């Protein structure tokens, strides 16, 4: 996959987008985490891509501006832990303490990042254990975490391996639950067939709503 950042200008407006060429039939444009991502079939001319962007310029710019970062790292800043905004309070202490809407922590970003990772890992392991008890096919051999840009999770059924996006820690817990169920169900159905969603619905009846909710 080839990926590059480009700037497209139209009159006095400017749009930064990342362009990737893939083996696909049609051009696809999405906005994720405030970033415009264009996927185009190999050989698709840039003029064609940019005329498409020109047509949707206003909507795209609006969508990129709507994105709010889940962390504003400073004393008095915030973090959206499990979809709830918490205020950061830098303290001269080693440990990180969460009290409802407030997070008390030392001013060391790497410690916060490590703490967030542990929160996510524990929650995902907890959920997987619950589902494994209900369905033997959900037994996984490896759970991994990655800072994906374009997806919430991945499943490798043959290796019995599931990988989750580290940004899930900013999402609501019921959405995290949906992602876990989704990836586990791929151990039974590798595709997104009707049978797959039937399996998902068993553990997550609300999946229709949650699927739409997950902004990335
Ligand atoms: Zn899937």
Can I get a quick summary?
The chain is an alpha/beta fold. It contains 6 helices and 12 strands. It folds into 3 domains: 65 residues, no CATH class; 37 residues, no CATH class; 100 residues, 2-Layer Sandwich (Zincin-like).
- Ligand list: zinc ion
N-to-C SSE string, H for helix and E for strand: EEEEHHEEEEEHEEEHHH
Largest sheet: 5 strands, mixed
CATH architecture field of the largest domain: 2-Layer Sandwich
Query: Considering the protein shown, what is the CATH homologous superfamily of the largest domain?
Result: Metalloproteases ("zincins"), catalytic domain
Q: How are the strands of the largest sheet arranged?
A: 5-6-7-9-8
Protein described:
This protein is of the alpha/beta class. It has three domains: 2-66, no CATH class; 71-107, no CATH class; 114-213, Metalloproteases ("zincins"), catalytic domain (Zincin-like, 2-Layer Sandwich), CATH 3.30.2010. The chain contains six helices and twelve strands. The protein has helices spanning 46-55, 57-66, 109-134, 173-185, 194-203, 207-213; strands at 2-10, 13-22, 28-32, 35-41, 71-72, 78-81, 84-90, 97-99, 102-105, 142-146, 153-156, 161-165. The strands form three sheets. A five-stranded mixed β-sheet has the order 5-6-7-9-8, with no helix packed on it. Strands 1-2-4-3 form a four-stranded mixed β-sheet, with helices on one face. Residues 182, 186, 192 line the site of zinc ion.
Task: Please render the helix and strand layout as text.
Layout: E1 2-10, E2 13-22, E3 28-32, E4 35-41, H1 46-55, H2 57-66, E5 71-72, E6 78-81, E7 84-90, E8 97-99, E9 102-105, H3 109-134, E10 142-146, E11 153-156, E12 161-165, H4 173-185, H5 194-203, H6 207-213
Parallel strand pairs: 2-4, 7-9, 10-12
Antiparallel strand pairs: 1-2, 3-4, 5-6, 6-7, 8-9, 11-12
Helix pairs in contact: 3-4, 4-5
The structure holds zinc ion.
The site of zinc ion has 3 residues, from loops.
């Amino acid at each position: 996959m080839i990926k590059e950042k480009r700037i497209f200008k139209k009159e006095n407006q400017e749009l930064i987008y990342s362009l990737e060429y893939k083996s696909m039939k049609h051009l696809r444009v999405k906005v994720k985490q405030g970033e415009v991502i264009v996927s185009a079939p190999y050989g698709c001319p840039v003029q064609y891509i940019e005329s498409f962007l020109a047509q949707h310029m206003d909507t795209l710019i609006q969508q990129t501006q709507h994105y709010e970062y889940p962390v504003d790292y400073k004393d008095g800043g915030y973090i959206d832990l499990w979809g709830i905004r918490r205020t950061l309070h830098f303290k001269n202490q080693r440990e990180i303490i969460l009290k409802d809407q407030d997070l008390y922590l030392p001013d060391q970003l790497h410690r916060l990042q490590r703490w967030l990772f542990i929160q996510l890992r524990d929650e995902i392991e907890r959920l997987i254990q619950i589902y494994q008890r209900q369905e033997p096919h959900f037994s996984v051999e490896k759970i991994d975490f990655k800072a994906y840009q374009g997806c919430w999770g991945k499943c490798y059924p043959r290796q019995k391996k599931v990988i989750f996006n580290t940004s899930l820690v900013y999402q609501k817990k019921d959405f995290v639950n949906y992602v876990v169920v989704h990836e586990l169900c791929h151990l039974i159905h590798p595709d997104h067939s009707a049978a797959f969603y039937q399996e998902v619905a068993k553990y997550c009846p609300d999946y229709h709503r949650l699927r739409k909710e997950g902004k990335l």
